[in-house]
Structure formats: structure tokens, C-alpha cells
Amino acid sequence: MATTPQSPLGFVNTDSLLSEEDIAIRDTVRKHVEEKVKPNLAGWYESASIPARELAKELGDLGVLGMHLEGYGCAGTSATAYGLACMELEAGDSGLRSLVSVQGSLAMFAIWKHGSEEQKREWLPRMAAGEAIGCFGLTEPDFGSNPGGMRTRARKDGTDWILSGNKMWITNGSVADVAVVWAQTEEGIRGFVVPTDTPGFSAPEIKQKMSLRASVTSELVLDNVRLPGSAMLPNVVGLSGPLSCLNEARFGIVFGALGAARDCLETAIAYAKDREIFDKPLAGFQLTQAKLADMTLELGKGMLLALHLGRLKDEGRLDHRQVSLGKLNNTREAIKIARECRTILGAAGITLEYPLMRHANNLESVLTYEGTSEVHQLIIGQAVTGESAYR
Ligand SMILES: Cc1cc2nc3c(=O)[nH]c(=O)nc-3n(C[C@H](O)[C@H](O)[C@H](O)COP(=O)(O)OP(=O)(O)OC[C@H]3O[C@@H](n4cnc5c(N)ncnc54)[C@H](O)[C@@H]3O)c2cc1C
User: Fold this and answer.
1) Is the CB of 390 within 6 Å of ligand 1?
2) Could you tell me the distance, in angstroms and rounded to a whole number, from the CA of residue 369 to the centre of ligand 1?
3) Overall pTM > 0.90
């Protein structure tokens, strides 16, 4: 007997856990992504180029840049609403969500949390409006999972700072107006707000990526970049500075990865209902239904975990190690869902006409950045055993 089908998350009914405001924000972002972004994605992905400046302006007008921050032109929404926005953006493409995460959770958050009043006033309103793009330089060619070993140095010259070193894999790097760069100093790791037109700064784009093609990824070269003393973030010393920002971005990924997974699952269900194989719809075969049921389960579980972490964050009770639970589970399950959905589409699944392989390839980066899966296993392992196993 046929019954009226429900969407996977509609069936789990996670909307019953959302406030009206959460739903309104989510629906606004979803509409924007559906109407303005999705039609362009295959083209951007194939050509590996995005109109970053235009996109940033549109996202600023939409109000999602630094939306969970208070003041300085930011919307001051709940963390849960920010997570839901990330989910809708990543249902479009992980590259779009990366642009927003790096802008809001990394570059803007670093200035908002650790910056001087002057730095906040200078950069945050323009960044919230999408008039200025930010990037966040922590990773180096030889130091990714272990950023504490970084070689980029800042030395004092009178009241100025001179920055030298190389950063690698930096999202938005080549299109940024401002870079938040982390460097070793005599007193420990410090953050610097670097206008990208400062002499000695350059950001060559990294080409030939097979993942996050609709996102700009760059190297940052700092060749004796001279900055005034006021360029240093005054309110944090040590690795806790960049880690506090990563924690914000990881939180967005907990939700974001599920957006990519949802888009894949909805695509696969629609395709399976339409595709006739051995004289009946592919959706009517038990092997297909087993796949769809398992994926619905994982998507629903991931969503419940994301919402739980969102509520804890809104109540100020979220421990950074709990964010690792969400980042590890939801990226790992999302990439499995993307790959499984691809099998349901058969050959059609490998093209850009459908979003499956684009999402699956993107999720390779999402598994790796903001702490690799292995790093999150180490964080969780230490939380439950008390033993550190990094070295
Ligand atoms: C598309 C993209 C965009 C990015 N954007 C940014 C950005 O905007 N800013 C920024 O600063 N960085 C960015 N990154 C860098 C990202 O954060 C790093 O790639 C990540 O931290 C991993 O570092 P790595 O690539 O050097 O890998 P490595 O650290 O060399 O790791 C290699 C492997 O070793 C494993 N490993 C590491 N340590 C251990 C251990 N103790 N025990 C067991 N296994 C271990 C890792 O899990 C991984 O599997 C981006 C990366 C990508 C791909």
C-alpha cells in the first residue's frame, strides 16, 4: 500500500524542537540558497571560480555574516539559529558555508572576542555587511594538526611589528581585505589584524583542488610585513586564541555537514521514486529502502545531536570537547550519506547535474579542516580517559 511520503527530517520532526524565530531564519536562508545560489553552483564548481565579492555582499544583506555576534552591525542571533543557517548554506555547497564560517566564526570572532575597540569599530561593521572579506591564517605548510609548532614570527621593531612566514590552505585568502594572522612572539602566540594591501603581504591562490572548488583557498606569504603596534589583538596570548575561534567554526560545521547530507538524501529519494528499474520504481526495492532508512536514521540522529549542542551553547554550557563529538559524527556520517546516495543514482550520480559527488568531494575537506577526524577522536579520547594521546 502506498502512503504519503515525508521528507527525512520532516519524518523525524526535528522542527518540533525549534522556535518560531529559528524556523523563520532557517527558511529565509533556505529560500536564498534555493533561488540565488543553487542555480549557479555546478558552473562555479566546474570552473573552480566564484564571484566572492558579490557573494559576500549578498550574504551580508542576508544577515548571516557574524550573525551570532552582538553589536558592531551583527545580528546577535542564537547559536542554534546560526547553526541552522550554516546547514542551509551547506545544503547549497560547503564552499558557501566555508566563506560564511571563515568570515563570521574565524576572522570576525577573533576580532570581536580578542580585539581592541578600535579594531572592532574599524572592521566588524564592514565585515558584517560583506563589504570587507576576512581570512584566518593559522595553518602552515608543516603545521596543520599541530599549530603550536608554527614558524611564522612577529618581532618588535620600535613600536611596530614585523611579520614573516607562510600560511597554507587559507580560505578566502586571495580575496580577503583583512587577514587575522597568528604568529610566534617572544611572549607566545599572538594574533595580528593585517590589511591585505600592506606591503610584503601576498596570497597566491591554490589551484587544482578536487574539493571545495566553489571556494577560494590560498597560501599567505608574509615577507617582512610591517604593522603598527595597534595591529596586535590585545586580549589573548597563546594557542587558546586561535582555538577559541576554531571552536566557533566547528560548531557551525556540526550543523553545516548535515545540510550537505540532507541535500544528498532528498535528491536520492526523488531520483529513486522517478527511476524505473526492472519495471518498477527504484524506491520500491528493499535494498534501496534499507539504504534510505539507514541514512534517514543517521541524518535524524545527527540533527538531534546538533540541536542538543546548539541549546547547550545558547545556555553557555557547551564544552569545546562536546563540539568535537558533533564535528566528528556529523562530518563522518555526512560523507557516508553523500557516497551512499551517489550509488542510488548510478552513473548519473557522478555528474554535476546532481549535487552528490560535489557534496561528497567537498566533505573530504570538511573532514580535514577545523580539526581532522583523528584530532577529534583524540580530544574525545582524552575527555573520557584523562589520558592525552597526541604524542
Ligand atoms: C579546503 C581547506 C580550507 C582550509 N581553510 C583553512 C583556513 O581558512 N585557515 C587555516 O588556518 N587552515 C585552513 N585549512 C587547513 C586545515 O585546518 C588543515 O588542513 C588541518 O588542520 C589538517 O592539517 P594538515 O592538512 O597539515 O594535516 P596533518 O596535520 O599533516 O595531518 C595528516 C594526517 O595525520 C593525522 N594526525 C595528525 N596528528 C595526529 C596524531 N597526533 N595522531 C594520529 N594522527 C594524527 C591527521 O588526522 C591526518 O589524518 C584548510 C584546509 C582545507 C583542505
Assistant:
1) yes
2) 6
3) yes
Q: Which atom belonging to ligand 1 lies closest to the Cα atom of 145?
A: 29
Q: Which atom of ligand 1 is nearest to the CA of 171?
A: 8
Mind listing the pLDDT tens digit for each residue in 189-227? Answer: 999 999 999 999 999 999 999 999 999 999 999 999 999
Domain harbouring 54, CATH code: 1.10.540.10
CA 54 / ligand 1 centre spacing (Å): 29
Distance 171 CA to ligand 1 centre (A): 13
Q: Are residues 166 and 138 in the same domain?
A: yes
Q: Is 142 in the pocket of ligand 1 (CB under 6 A)?
A: no
| Any ligand 1 atom below 6 A from CB of 375 | yes
Tell me: do 284 and 370 sit in the same domain.
yes
Domain range spanning residue 55? 8-128
Ligand 1 midpoint to CA 182 (Å): 16
340 in active site: no
Domain CATH code at residue 286 = 1.20.140.10
Q: What is the 3-state secondary structure (H, E, C) of the chain?
A: CCCCCCCHHHHHCHHHHCCHHHHHHHHHHHHHHHHHHHHHHHHHHHHCCCCHHHHHHHHHHHCCCCCCCEECCEECCCHHHHHHHHHHHHHHCHHHHHHHHHHHHHHHHHHHHHCCHHHHHHHHHHHHCCCCCEEEECCECCECCCHHHCCCEEEEECCEEEEEEEEEEEECHHHCCEEEEEEEECCEEEEEEEECCCCCEECCECCCCCCCCCCCEEEEEEEEEEECHHHECCCCCCCHHHHHHHHHHHHHHHHHHHHHHHHHHHHHHHHHHHCEECCEEHHHCHHHHHHHHHHHHHHHHHHHHHHHHHHHHHCCCCCHHHHHHHHHHHHHHHHHHHHHHHHHCHHHHHCCCCCHHHHHHHHHHHHHCCCCHHHHHHHHHHHHHCCCCCC
Tell me the per-residue pLDDT of 277-307, one tens digit each, with 9 for 90 and over: 999 999 999 999 999 999 999 999 999 999 9
| Domain annotation covers residue 2 | no
Question: Is ligand 1 within 6 A of the CB of residue 169?
Answer: yes
Indicate the number of domains in the chain.
3
